[in-house]
Amino acid sequence: MYIDIQGLTKKFKRGEQTLMVLDNISLTINQGEFICLLGPSGCGKTTLLNILAGFENASEGSVLIDGEVVSTPTSRYVTIFQNYGLLPWRNVRHNVELGLEGKKISKSKRKEIAEKYICLVGLDKFANSNPAQLSGGMQQRVAIARALAVSPDIIFMDEPFGALDAMTRMKMQDEILEIKRSQNKTIIFVTHDIDEAVYLADRIIVFSPNPGRIKEIIQVQLKFPRDRNGYDFIRIRDKVFSLFDIH
Amino acid sequence: MYIDIQGLTKKFKRGEQTLMVLDNISLTINQGEFICLLGPSGCGKTTLLNILAGFENASEGSVLIDGEVVSTPTSRYVTIFQNYGLLPWRNVRHNVELGLEGKKISKSKRKEIAEKYICLVGLDKFANSNPAQLSGGMQQRVAIARALAVSPDIIFMDEPFGALDAMTRMKMQDEILEIKRSQNKTIIFVTHDIDEAVYLADRIIVFSPNPGRIKEIIQVQLKFPRDRNGYDFIRIRDKVFSLFDIH
Amino acid sequence: MKYIHSIKRIFISGTLFIALWQIICWTTDFNPSLLPGPVRVWYALIQMFGEGNILNDIQDSMYRFAIGYLLAALSAIILGLTLGWFKEIFAYINPIVQLLRPISPIAWMPFIVLLFGIGDVPAIVIIFISAFFPILLSTISAVGNVDKMYLKVADNFDIKQPYVLTKIIFPATFPQIANGLHIALGSSWIFLVAGEMVGSQTGLGYLIIDARNNLRTDILLATIIIIGVIGLFLDTLISQFEKQIYTRWGYEREGKK
Amino acid sequence: MKYIHSIKRIFISGTLFIALWQIICWTTDFNPSLLPGPVRVWYALIQMFGEGNILNDIQDSMYRFAIGYLLAALSAIILGLTLGWFKEIFAYINPIVQLLRPISPIAWMPFIVLLFGIGDVPAIVIIFISAFFPILLSTISAVGNVDKMYLKVADNFDIKQPYVLTKIIFPATFPQIANGLHIALGSSWIFLVAGEMVGSQTGLGYLIIDARNNLRTDILLATIIIIGVIGLFLDTLISQFEKQIYTRWGYEREGKK
Amino acid sequence: ANNIVISQGTDVPTQEVKNTSEKKTIKIAYLPITHALPVFREKELFEKESSNIEIELIKYGSWPELLDALNTNRVDGASVLIELAMKSKEEGNDIKAVALGHHDGNVIIVSNDISSPEDLKGKKFAIPHRQSSHNILLNEMLNQAGISLRELEIVELAPPEMPSALASGQIAGYCVAEPFGAKAVDLGVGKVLYDSTDLWRDSICCALVMTDKFLNENSDTVNQFIASYKEAGNQLNNEEAEKISKEYLGQEKDVLDISLKWISYNDLDITEETYSALIDKVKKYGLSDNPPSFEEFVYKP
Ligand SMILES: Nc1ncnc2c1ncn2[C@@H]1O[C@H](COP(=O)(O)OP(=O)(O)OP(=O)(O)O)[C@@H](O)[C@H]1O
Ligand SMILES: Nc1ncnc2c1ncn2[C@@H]1O[C@H](COP(=O)(O)OP(=O)(O)OP(=O)(O)O)[C@@H](O)[C@H]1O
Ligand SMILES: [Mg+2]
Ligand SMILES: [Mg+2]
What we know:
The complex is a heteropentamer, with 2 copies of chain A (247 residues), 2 copies of chain C (257 residues) and 1 copy of chain E (301 residues). Helix content of chain C is 80%, strand content 0%.
C-alpha cells in the first residue's frame, strides 16, 4: 500500500461550535493509481486533499505515504488547484522553473527541464508569455508542467478543470490521461462531475456529506481510451447517478 | 413562427479590424419551445442572445418577435445571467419586486405577486435574506422568480447554471423543466454542456465558431422526464459528441 | 473576550510609546520647553480638560468639520454620479479637476479669505476642498466600474431615468463611494489644522496655532494627541460603517485588520 | 488620433476654465492685486520663466520630493512587508500608527525643526511623513490579502524564508502596493508646500509663502498653476506605471478613465 | 604637462578655502518686512568692507516658524517681535535681545468708512499676534478712547491675509508690521487712523535677538557685530532705506514708499528706560504677567 489512510477525522472550530468535516475515513491507494474523489459541494474533498498534501493536520487518525507520516508539504507531492495557482508576475518558463529554484540545479539545467515539460504540454510557443495572456486551459497546462518539472511521486488535483468550459474540459481530460500514462504518476483527483470521474478514474471514491464519509468505492475497470457513450461507461455512470439520487 | 431570425450577421470593431462574430444566422422558433444554443466558447452564443433580447443591434438581417422588430429590451422578454444579476443591496423579496416597480401595481399586490413566485422556487423561508447569504443555486432561483414575476413571454438564459456544481446543476435542470411545464414559457437557453442541452431542449442549435454559424439543428423528441442514461438519450448525446469530434 | 484582548493591546502599545518618548527626551536632553516629556504633556492635558475650554474647542472643530465634510460628501456624490453618467462632459472637466487636486489647501488661503472671509467659513471651505476631490473621483470611477449586468437588468425591467440612477447606479456604487468617504475623512481631518489657521479663535486647529504662537509645546503636543484620538475615533466609526456596507453588499471580507 | 482628441479636450477644458476665472474676476470686482485675472498671471508666469529662477525652484522641490518620497516608499514597503507578515507585532504597533496618522504634518513643525533643523531636511521629512503612512498601511493590508493559494504553492515547492517574502509575497502584493504608492504620491505632493515653509530659501512651497508675504497674488497663482501641472504630470506617470503593473499581473482593466 | 594641470588644480581651491575658513558666518532669521532693514544693511556693510563676519539671511513665512528655528539654535539670531522674544525667554528659551529693529513705524489701518475708534465697536479688528506691539497699540488706542477691549472682536490673522480681509469687508481694521498696512492704503481699501507716535511715544516693536549659545561662544565677534548693526541703522536715511528695501523685499515699490515714511532706524540701543516702559505696557495689557527683567533679557557687552 502506497498511501495508507486510517481512521482519519477532521474537525473545524467555528466560533463556539465544532464542525466535523471528515468522519473516520479509511482508504488505501496503490502506486500508479488514478483515484477520483467525487461528492457534492462541502463534503470535505478539498479538506481531505489538504491533509494528504500536508497543508493541514488531521484531528484524529493517521496518513502514511510510502511508509512515512505526512507532516508538511513537500515537492514530492504536488497539488494543482482549480485556479491554477500560477504566479502572474512570472512568464510561463519562470513559473515552470519555480519548483526547481530551491534545488541544487544549474541555471541551464533548470531551463532545459522547464522546456522539456513545457513542450510536453504543448506550450513551446508560449514559453515567454504571461499567464494573463493565456486561456484557462493553457494556464492549467502550465500548472501541470510546473508540477511535473519537480518529478513528484503523487499529483493532487482539486477540481482542476472546474473553471473550463465543457469542451475544453474534455480535451484536458484526454491530456491528463496521456500524461498519467507516459509519466506513470499516482494521481488523486477531486471532481464533482460524474462523467469526468468515470472517464478518468481507476477507482471512484464517492463521498456523502455532513459529515464527509466514504459512501462507496467504485472500481472502473474499463480500458483506455474510454468511450463516453459506450455501454459499459453508461452502466457505471448510471450506478453513480443512482448513488446521488439522480436519473 | 413566434421568433423569426433572418440572415442575422454581427460584426464587432476591434481597433482597426472588424471581427465577424455571427455569420448569416437564420432560425425560427415556435411559442413554448425550449431551445438550447450549444457551442464552444467564443462562438457568439451570448452575442446572439443579446441581439434577441434587444441589448445589442444586429449588423445585418432582422429579428422579429411576435411580428414586431426587436429594438430595445422590454420586460416581455427577460434575460437570466450566469452570475444571476441580483442586486446585492436588496433582499430576496425586493429583488423579485424589482420588475414590478415600474408597472402600475399597488404595493400590496406587488408583495403578493413576489411572494407567489418566491414560493414557486421554494424560497419562502428566505424572502428577507440578502443574496450574499444564499448559495449559488438559491440565488439563481431568486433570479428565476424575479423573471417570472413580470410574466414575460420569453425567458433568455445565458449559461444560467454554469457557476453551480454538477449535482446542484442537475437539480436546477429539473426545476427549470418543471417551471417551463407549469408556466408554459418560451425558453432560449445557452450552454456548452452537452448533457444539459440533451436533457432540456426540444431543439438543440449547434454552433461552430469563427465566425459563429449554425452547424446543425437537432430535434430531441424524447418525453419528459428524460432518463440521462437511457438508450435514446445516449444516442442523441453521441450524435452531438461526434459533431464536436469527441468520443 | 476579543474586546478585552484589543484593549490589552492598546494599553501595551500606549505604554511602549510613552516609554519610547520618555527615552528620547532623556537621551536628547533638549530643554523641556522645546521637547516636553510625557509627564509635562499629561499635566497640560489635565489642565486643558480641567479648565473645560477644550470641550468647546472640540465642539467647534467637530461642528466645522461635520459641515464641511457632509457638504463635500453630498455635493461630490451628486456631482460624481452625474459626471460619471455623462462621461463626455466629465472628459472636459477632468483636466481641470486633475490640475486643482494636487494643490495644497494652504496655498489657496489668500483667495479663501478674500472670497469667504475669516472665522468658521474658511475652515469649512478648506475641509470641504480636501474632502471633495477624493469623494468626487471615487464616485466617478465607481460609476465607470458599475457591473454592466446591473444596467442590463435595469433596461430589461423597463426601469427609466432617474430611477436607474437612484435604484441601480447609486446603490451599486455605494461600497466604492463608502471607500472614498473613508479616505476623504482621513485627509480632510488632517486639514482641520490648516483650516482653522485663518481667523478662527476657537477649535483644535486654532489651539495648535495658538500653542505655537505662545511657545507652549506641552499644550501643542497635548492638542496633537487629542486630534489623533478624535481622528482615530472617526476612522473607527467610518470603518465600521464601511464594513457593514461590504457585508450587506456581499463583498468578501477584507483581510483581517 | 486618440492623442489629438485628448489634446483637444484639454484645450477646450483649459479655455473654459480661464473664461470662468475671468468672469469671476469681473463680477466680484476686487482689486486685481488681490484677485488677479488670467492675463496678469500669464505675465507673471512669463516673467518667472524669463528670469529663469523658477527652474531652480522646480528642481529643488523635485529633489526634496524625490528623496522624501523614495525614502518613504522604501522604508514603508520593507516595514510593511515585515509587519504584514508578523501580524502579532503589528497588532501592538497599529494603535500608535492609527493615532499618529490623522495629524497634520504642520502640527509637528516645531519638533521637526528641533530634530532636523532647517533647510532641505524638514521639507524632506514632511514629505516623508505624508507618504509613509499610506504606503505602510496599504502594504500591510496587501500582505494580509495575499491569496492563500500562493503561500500553498510556495510551501509545496519547498520555498523557504526569506525567499517566500522576496519571491512570493512581495510580487503578489505589488499591485496593491503600487496603488498605495499612487495615493501617497498625491498626498505627499500636497504637503510639499507645507514642507517648504520651514526655512527653505528655494522651492515651489517657498515661492508660495514668499508670494503671500510679498502680497504678490499674481505670482502666487502662477506658482499654484505650476504646482498643479507638475502634480498632474507626476500623477500621470504613476498611473501609467500602475496600469502596466495591472496588465502584467493580469488584473482586469479598470473602468475607462 | 600633467604637473602643470595638477598644480593649477590644487592652487585655486586652497586659496578659496583659506579665505572662507577665516570668515565667521552668522545666521539671521527674518520676515520680509521693513522692520528688518538694518540687518540687510549690515550684511551689505560687511560685504563692502570684506569683513571677517558674514551674514547669512534666512527668510521665514511666519513668526512661529521663525521662532522654532531661533529657540532650537538653528539660527544664531533673528529680527523678531520683541514681546514674542520676551515670551520665549519667559518660557525658558535661552535668548537675549541685543538691539532694536527700528523706532515707530506701525499704523492703525481702518476701512474708509471708519473715522474714530468708536466706529470700531462691534466689529472685527485684526492683529498678527497676541505678543506684539500691535496688540499694545490697539490697547492704547482703545484706552485713550475709553473703549473696552470687549466691545470689539479681536482676531489673530496672518499679516498677508489682512489687506484681503479688509478689502472684502471681513475686518474693520488692523494693526501689523509694515508694509502690510501700507498695502491697504495703496489699494485704497483703508486709511491710517493713528500713527504709532500718536498712541505710544517712541514705541518699539521688532528687535534683534540672539541665542545665548551664540553670544557665549562668540564673545569676540559679538560686539563688533552689534556695533555694525547699530551703525547700519544710523545710515538708513530715507534714500538708503528705499534702496535696501527694494533690494531685499519683494513688495511693490509704491507700497514700500508709503510705508517708509512712518519708520526710523536711528539709535537702536535698547535703553533701560524704553524697556521698562515696554514692561509696564506688557503687564498692563495682559500680554504677560512676569516678563523677563532688563538684566535677564537685554544683552550688555
Ligand atoms: N479552515 C476552515 N475552517 C472552518 N471550516 C472549514 C474550513 N475549511 C473548510 N471548512 C468547512 O468544511 C466543509 C468542507 O469543506 P471542503 O472545502 O473540504 O469541501 P469540498 O468538498 O471541497 O467542497 P467544494 O466542492 O465546494 O469545493 C465545508 O462546510 C467548509 O465550510
Ligand atoms: N462588445 C464586444 N466588442 C468586441 N468583441 C466582442 C464583444 N462582445 C463579444 N465579442 C467577441 O465576440 C466573440 C463571441 O463572444 P460571445 O460572448 O458571444 O461568445 P460565447 O459563445 O458567449 O462564449 P462563452 O461560451 O465563452 O460565453 C468573442 O470572440 C468575443 O471576444
Ligand atoms: Mg473543494
Ligand atoms: Mg457567453
